[in-house]
Design a protein that fits this description.
Blueprint: E1 15-17, E2 27-32, H1 41-55, E3 64-67, H2 71-82, E4 87-91, H3 97-105, E5 109-112, H4 120-135, H5 149-152, H6 155-165, E6 170-174, H7 179-189, E7 196-202, E8 237-241, H8 243-257, H9 263-277, E9 284-289, E10 314-315, E11 326-329, E12 337-341, H10 349-358, E13 362-367, H11 376-379, E14 382-385, H12 391-402, E15 407-411, H13 418-428, H14 435-442, H15 444-453, E16 461-464, H16 470-477, E17 481-485, E18 495-497, H17 500-512, E19 526-530, E20 536-544, E21 547-558, E22 566-571, H18 577-593, E23 599-608, E24 611-618, H19 626-634, H20 638-646, E25 660-665, E26 672-678, H21 680-684, E27 689-694, E28 701-702, E29 713-719, H22 722-735, E30 737-741
Parallel strand pairs: 2-9, 3-4, 4-5, 6-7, 6-9, 7-8, 10-11, 12-13, 12-15, 13-14
Antiparallel strand pairs: 1-2, 8-11, 16-19, 17-18, 17-19, 20-21, 20-23, 21-22, 22-25, 23-24, 25-29, 26-28, 26-30, 27-29
Helix pairs in contact: 1-2, 6-7, 8-9, 13-14, 14-15, 16-17
C-alpha cells in the first residue's frame, strides 16, 4: 500500500489468523499493532498531535513535552519530529536502552530524572515536565491518560477489524491508559452490540479493584492510578496475570506463533487462547497485540519464573484480591445495582458514581432534580427522577431501576439524605444504618442529647424552637456563642454571635425558613452553643464489624468570624502522639454514643487544654474533598471503601504511603459577578501540586464565603514533609486569581 508520508503509514495493521487449540469453527486472530512503525501508541500520537495542530492548541514548530518511558514516547517522537516539532521526552533510569536509542536517533531531547520524589518516579517525571513547560514558551503536553483523543484514535482500529473480518464476537486487550481497548470496543459495540469485551490487567495494578503493588515488573499494562480514559461500563470480563505468568506467555507467543512481542501481547495471547479453547463453534476472537519484543530482551525474555505457572485462571468474584492468573465476570447488562439517594454537590458525589462503575457496579442516582449535579452526564450513571422525600416513591423508583437485577447496596454522599438511604437499604435488606442512628447524626439536637447521656465533653448548649427562648438560651450558654440550625450542613447558617442582638437575629433568620436548600422541611429548631475557642480537627473514622477505625485526623482552617467556612485542610494534622490518641478515642466514644456501627463518619472536634470537645458527628465521609486529600497522602481511597461497605465487601484501610497533603479552597474576596479564574494551568504545573479544580461559573454572583457553597474550586498538593506540601500550596494559590466585577 502506497503512503505519501510516514505518518500516513500508521495503522492498517494486519489481523493474522493464529494457530491455536480450539474447537472446529472457532477463529482466533491477532491484530498486530506491533507492526506500526514503532508500536500501537503511534495511532494515539498521530491523532492527539494532529488534533492539537488543527485546534491551535499546538502551534506550528512549538515544542512537545511528554512523560513516558515506552511506546507513547516513541509515537510522540515519530509524529512530532516528523511534523517539525522539537520533542522533549521526560523519563527515568528504568527506560530500556533500545527505546532510549530510538528516541535519540529520531532527534528527541531525552530528560532522565535522577531520583524519585514523594510520588515516586512518576512524580519526579511530572515535576521535570512542569519545569520544561515553564522554560519552553508555547510548549504542549499530550496528557495521554486523560486526553479523549487517546481512545478516539482507536476508532480506526475498530474500522479495520470490521473491514477485514466483518464481525467479531470476543475482543481481548490489555488495559493501561485505557485508550486502546476502550476506544476500540466502544466503536465496535456501535455495530456489534453482543460483542464480549475482555480486559487483561496485571496482578498488583489498581485498575480493577486490586491493591497497588509497586514492585510489579510488567510494563505497558496496569497502573497505580485511575486514568480518565477507562470506561468501566464496556467490560464483560477481566483477567489478571502475575509477572511470571505474563512473561511465560510472551515466550509462548514467540515459540508457538512466531510473534516476537512484548509482555502486553503475551498476556493477551494467554487469555485469548484460554477463551478460544472453551468457545462455541462459530466464535471469532480477536486479541490486540500492542508492541514488539525488542525492548524486553533483557527483561521478559531472560526472566526465569520463581514458581509454577497457572495453566487456567482461578475464577473469583470481582473485588477479590488476587495473586496469580485469575478472572472475574462483570457482564455489562447484568451488573448489580448500587442505589444512590441524591448526592452532595460540592464534594465527591460525582466521583462516587464513577467509583461505583469501576467496582463493577451499575450506579443509579435517585434524584428529584438531576440538573442539580454538574458533571452527572460524564459519570455514565443512570439518573432516575422521583420524589426523594416520598419513601414509597423512592422504593418504587428503585425497584423499577433495578429491573430484576440484584441490588448490591444503597448509599448517599449527602448529609441531607442519611435517613432516606438508611430506610431504603433496610427495605432491600442491604447493609446500612438503623434509621434511628442516621436520625441521631442528622439532627444535631438529637446528637447533643445522645452525647450528654454518654457523658461526652461537648459545648454547653440549649435547643430552642421559637424566638422567645433565644435570649434565655444565650444567658445560659454565655457570650460569645454559636447559633446554628439543628439540621444544617456545610456551615450553612452557622454564625458566631458576639452579643444577644446578633444571636436573636440569627435565630430568627433560621426559624423563618421552612425549607432547606434541598427543599426539605426544616426541623424548626435552633442550637445556641458555647463557642469553644480552640483549634478544630476532623477525625476521619470508618466502622465495620463492630470496630471503629481512625483513618487519620485532618487539620482545618476556616474563615474569619462570624462564619465557620473551611478554607483549607491539612492531612495528617500536626499533633503530638498523645493528642492524636486522645482525639481518636474521643471520636470512637462519640460514635458509640449514637450507635454508629457501619461505614464512614467524621467527627468534628476542637482540642482544648482540657482535651477534645465534640462539635458535631457526621454520618458520612468528610466533605470539602478531604477523601481526595487522604488518598493523596496515604493511598487509601475512602470513596472506594464507602461503596465496598455499602455492598458488603471486605475493606482495605491500610496505607501504602505516608505523605503530607494540603488543600486550599478558591474563594472570592468581594461580592460581584465572576468574570474568570486565571492562572490555573500555571498552578497545576507547580511541583507537588496534585490537582487544581475550578467550580465557579462565569457570570454568576459570588461572595466571600459564608457557606461551603460559596467556594469556587480548590488546589491539592502533596509533599514528603509538611513544609514541602505547604510551599507547593502557597506557590500554586499565589498564581491563581478569582476575578470579579461589581454589579450595579
Amino acid at each position: 500500500m502506497r503512503h505519501d508520508t510516514l505518518v500516513d503509514a500508521i495503522g492498517n495493521t494486519p489481523a493474522v489468523r493464529l494457530r491455536v487449540d480450539a474447537p472446529d469453527g472457532v477463529e482466533v486472530y491477532g491484530k498486530l499493532e506491533l507492526l506500526n512503525p514503532y508500536a500501537m501508541k503511534d495511532r494515539v500520537a498521530r491523532r492527539i498531535i494532529l488534533e492539537a495542530r488543527r485546534t491551535g492548541a499546538l502551534r506550528e514548530g512549538a515544542p512537545i513535552v511528554e512523560s513516558s518511558s515506552g511506546t507513547m514516547a516513541l509515537g510522540v517522537a515519530l509524529v512530532g519530529t516528523y511534523l517539525g516539532h522539537p520533542v522533549h521526552i521526560v523519563t527515568d533510569p528504568r527506560i530500556d536502552p533500545v527505546t532510549l536509542a530510538k528516541l535519540k536517533a529520531m532527534g528527541c531531547s531525552v530528560h532522565i530524572v535522577k531520583a524519585m520524589t514523594a510520588h515516586g518516579w512518576q512524580g519526579a517525571r511530572l515535576e521535570r515536565l512542569a519545569e520544561l513547560m515553564r522554560d519552553l514558551p508555547g510548549s504542549w503536553w499530550p496528557q495521554q491518560y486523560s486526553n479523549p483523543d487517546n481512545p478516539a484514535a482507536y476508532r480506526t482500529l475498530a474500522a479495520e477489524l470490521l473491514d477485514d473480518l466483518g464481525t467479531v464476537n470476543v475482543l481481548v486487550g490489555s488495559v493501561g491508559s485505557g485508550g486502546s481497548l476502550c476506544g476500540t470496543s466502544a466503536a465496535l459495540l456501535e455495530h456489534l452490540p453482543d460483542l464480549k469485551v475482555v480486559g487483561v490487567d496485571c496482578v498488583g495494578s489498581v485498575l480493577f479493584g486490586q491493591p497497588d503493588v509497586a514492585t510489579r515488573k510488567q510494563g505497558g499494562l496496569g497502573n497505580s492510578l485511575y486514568p480518565d480514559n477507562i470506561d468501566y461500563r464496556l467490560f464483560d470480563e477481566v483477567h489478571w496475570l502475575s509477572d511470571d505468568e505474563a512473561f511465560d506467555a510472551t515466550k509462548s507467543l514467540a515459540r508457538e506463533q512466531k510473534i516476537f512481542a512484548g509482555n502486553t501481547s503475551g498476556s493477551v495471547y494467554r487469555v485469548l487462547t484460554h477463551l478460544a479453547a472453551r468457545a462455541a463453534p462459530g466464535t471469532r476472537l480477536v486479541g490486540i497485540m500492542p508492541d514488539r519484543g525488542d525492548r524486553y530482551v533483557d527483561s521478559v525474555y531472560r526472566h526465569e519464573a520463581a514458581g509454577p505457572i497457572a495453566t487456567v485462571p482461578t475464577e473469583v468474584a470481582f473485588g477479590t484480591t488476587v495473586h496469580n492468573w485469575s478472572c472475574a465476570a462483570l457482564p455489562r447488562r447484568e451488573r448489580p445495582v448500587l442505589l444512590f439517594v441524591e448526592s452532595n454537590t460540592t464534594g465527591t458525589g460525582m466521583l462516587a458514581l464513577r467509583t461505583a462503575t469501576r467496582l463493577g457496579l451499575a450506579p443509579v442516582l435517585l434524584t428529584k432534580d438531576p440538573a442539580r449535579y454538574p458533571g452527572l452526564d460524564e459519570t455514565g450513571c443512570s439518573a432516575v427522577l422521583c420524589d426523594t422525600e416520598d419513601e414509597a416513591a423512592v422504593r418504587a423508583a428503585a425497584g423499577s431501576a433495578a429491573a430484576g437485577r440484584t441490588v448490591a447496596g444503597v448509599t448517599t454522599t449527602s448529609d441531607f439524605y442519611l435517613v432516606h438511604a438508611a430506610a431504603l437499604a433496610r427495605s432491600f435488606g442491604r447493609p446500612g444504618h438503623a434509621p434511628g442512628t442516621a436520625a441521631l447524626c442528622r439532627d444535631k439536637s438529637l446528637t447533643r442529647a445522645a452525647l450528654s447521656e454518654a457523658g461526652m465533653s461537648q459545648p454547653a448548649h440549649v435547643v430552642v424552637g421559637s424566638a422567645e427562648g433565644v435570649a434565655a438560651a444565650v444567658a445560659r450558654v454565655g457570650l460569645p456563642c454559636v447559633v446554628k440550625p439543628a439540621d444544617g450542613s456545610g456551615s450553612q447558617d452557622v454564625r458566631w454571635c458576639a452579643d444577644e442582638a446578633s444571636a436573636l437575629t440569627q435565630a430568627a433568620h433560621i426559624l423563618a425558613a421552612t425549607e432547606n436548600i434541598r427543599g426539605q422541611a426544616r426541623a424548626g429548631k435552633v442550637l445556641v452553643e458555647e463557642f469553644v475557642d480552640a483549634p478544630e480537627y476532623s477525625v476521619e473514622m470508618f466502622c465495620a464489624e463492630g470496630e471503629a477505625v481512625c483513618v487519620g485526623i485532618t487539620g482545618r482552617t476556616t474563615t474569619a468570624l462570624p462564619h465557620f467556612v473551611e478554607t483549607g485542610h491539612f492531612f495528617p494534622a500536626a499533633l503530638s502522639t498523645t493528642a492524636e490518641a486522645d482525639i481518636a478515642e474521643c471520636a470512637r466514644k462519640a460514635l458509640k454514643a449514637v450507635g454508629f456501627e457501619l461505614g464512614p463518619a467524621h467527627v468534628e472536634v476542637r482540642l482544648t487544654p482540657a482535651g477534645p470537645v465534640v462539635i458535631e458527628i457526621n454520618g458520612r465521609l468528610a466533605g470539602g474533598m478531604i477523601p481526595q486529600l487522604i488518598r493523596a497522602a496515604t493511598g487509601i481511597d475512602l470513596l472506594d471503601q464507602q461503596l465496598r461497605v455499602a455492598t458488603g465487601r471486605p475493606l482495605a484501610l491500610t496505607a501504602d504511603r505516608a505523605l503530607h497533603a494540603g488543600l486550599r479552597f478558591l474563594t472570592a474576596t468581594e461580592t460581584g459577578r465572576l468574570t474568570g479564574i486565571t492562572g490555573v494551568a500555571e498552578a497545576a504545573r507547580v511541583p507537588g501540586v496534585e490537582s487544581v479544580v475550578t467550580t465557579g461559573v462565569v457570570g454568576r454572583t459570588v461572595r466571600p464565603p459564608q457557606a461551603a457553597y460559596d467556594r469556587l474550586g480548590h488546589v491539592i498538593a502533596v509533599g514528603s514533609t509538611p513544609r514541602e506540601a505547604e510551599t507547593a500550596l502557597e506557590t500554586a494559590t499565589a498564581l491563581i486569581r478569582v476575578e470579579t466585577v461589581r454589579e450595579p
